[in-house]
Amino acid sequence: MMLENKVVAITGAGRGVGREIALLCARHGASVVVNDPGVGGGGEGGDAGPAQQTVDDIITAGGKALANLASVADPVGAQSIVEDAVQHFGRIDAVVNNAGILRDAIWHKLSLEDWRAVIDVHLNGAFNVSKAATPYFREQNSGSFVHFTSTSGLIGNIGQANYSAAKLGIVGLSQSIALDMARAGVRSNCIAPFAWSRMTASIPAETPEQQARVERLKTMSADKIAPLAVYLASDASQGVTNQIFGVRKNEIVLFDKPRPVRSMTKTTGWTPEAIADELIPAFRPSFARADEVSADVFPYDPI
């Protein structure tokens, strides 16, 4: 019971990864605010059913849960998620920023509307909910933020400029929260999940390579992500902050942050010509692959 007497708010918890996290948090003793407006994969529509179903399943199993249908993209809605936790369960101990949508498009076809929609839910949503919880975390000198990033942001992916930018932005947000809130005993970490869900189901599968990747993803169930989220939300993770983890079935990955790879000094100063003639030839063997995507970094099947 790693979360006994704790209160956890989980966004996007009506389906997929978020639902599995909510169920496991409840099994570990947490009272759970299940946030999900029930929108489609691209953010369209709305349905109270998914959030309420997760709540009903938790209560049936003997746990405590409450549904919240607000959009994390709305600061007032995000505030309501945290306020529901405090008003109904007395406190807030952890926030899991899992909510997300996808509106994939190759770069030259990506619309401003689709850019803003994805940034609003992922990056602004993580900001809004985290900001709402921060005063409570500071007052009680404890708390945990668990943010969801993606290898699309950490490594890169085709046709996902909006999603990639949002997900890498979440890493920057988490890092700064971890540094700023350390004095208050608050932790902030990221998880990059590999799991089959409505969102990953939209990945193109036109070439044999793409089809093989999708088939691998189908073997990665959402419930495998939940144990790490529960651990990071719990007091057992004291001292674990400002980290980026990945989960692929039974494999957990720790990602490094960008660090200098090579450096070169020219005492007379650099000119454009010297950069072309001296610097780039020296740096080129250490260049990151220009066409690298997540599948190139993780080409093997997890167990």
UniProtKB/TrEMBL annotation:
It comes from the Bacteria. Pfam families: adh_short. Residues 6-202 form the Ketoreductase domain. PROSITE patterns: ADH_SHORT. Belongs to the short-chain dehydrogenases/reductases (SDR) family. This is NAD(P)-dependent dehydrogenase (Short-subunit alcohol dehydrogenase family). It comes from Erythrobacter ramosus. The lineage of its organism: Bacteria, Pseudomonadati, Pseudomonadota, Alphaproteobacteria, Sphingomonadales.
